[in-house]
Amino acid sequence: MAQLSQPPLLVVTDLDGTLLDHHSYDFAPAQPALTRLKRLSIPLILNTSKTAAELAPLREQLGSDAPFVVENGAALLWTDDVWPACAEPLGAMMGHRMQPFGATRAEILSALAQIQRDTGLNPEGFADWDVPTLMRHTGLDAVSAQQALERHFSEPLLWQGSDPELKKLARALRSYGLRLLRGGRFVHAVGNSDKGRCLAPLKRAYQRQWGREPRVIALGDGDNDVAMLELADHPVVVRSPVNPPPRLSAACRPRALYTEACGPEGWNQAIHHLLDHYRLP
Ligand SMILES: [Mg+2]
């Protein structure tokens, strides 16, 4: 790689299957790279299909006080003390400032109910499940499952039908201004948002704070990460043990890094590689 100057960096990352192991949700193999980022004061922005409630304990484990993005890009959350420079707050949730980008879950569930009446398609989703059922489908413990059910902007669906039926569902959702995103374990009915929408406001806020436009390293393993990866300066496709790599555009592929190892191990390798590239200690 060519030598570059040292612009400020932001790391924006998916969790499931990317920073967290697909099966065990463990991030220990990424710890060396996480420690290096912390030492360099490079913000670690979590950008996930998870809810704010689910993320709270994980952010504590990761020691992360950076802004974060929940429910597949539906909202960006941050606290005043860590990010006073941002002037775009439009709401509040769980003690955080919030900038929403998508439809509410109530709007999504109402559209799904109407689609079921119109088409007969009736995918099971989180709204149909109690805590024990979600535990069976995900392997989450009871507390984590309860947090996963506290959703505000998206509805994960367990798709068991055919591909043509899935396309039909996506078409029907589009007629309500909603979208279907394929994640590692579920398909997600979401508003007109994606995991890339947060990048511009994030870059603006950090540019105000730092006086220089940051470069973005983004890491993901699924189709729902494509919008984020496409907008990154350094897209990293983390290998998945279960899914083929997401398809990036021809314009994006040449600057993308594809990890050899899966999940947090691949994450660790990619971050070290890019920090070495910028000659960071
Ligand atoms: Mg993922």
Describe, in plain words, how this protein is organized in 3D.
The relative contact order is 0.19. Mean pLDDT is 90; it is low at 1-5. This protein has 281 residues and is of the alpha/beta class. It folds into 2 domains: 9-101 and 194-277, HAD superfamily/HAD-like (Rossmann fold), CATH 3.40.50.1000; 105-190, Putative mannosyl-3-phosphoglycerate phosphatase, domain 2 (Threonyl-tRNA Synthetase, Chain A, domain 2). Helices cover 34% and strands 20% of the residues. The two termini are 17 Å apart. A 9-stranded mixed β-sheet has the order 5-6-4-3-2-1-11-12-13. Strands 7-8-10-9 form a 4-stranded antiparallel β-sheet. Strand 2, helix 2 (52-62) and strand 3 form a beta-alpha-beta unit. The protein contains 9 helices and 13 strands. Magnesium ion binds at residues 14, 16-18, 184, 221-222.
Count, helices: 9
Strand count, sense and barrel status of the largest sheet are: 9 strands, mixed
- What is the domain total for the residues? 2
N-end to C-end Cα span:
17 Å
**Which architecture name of the largest domain does CATH use?**
3-Layer(aba) Sandwich
Low-confidence blocks of residues: 1-5
Radius of gyration: 18 Å
Mean pLDDT: 90
Query: Helical residue percent?
Result: 25-40%
Strand content: 15-25%
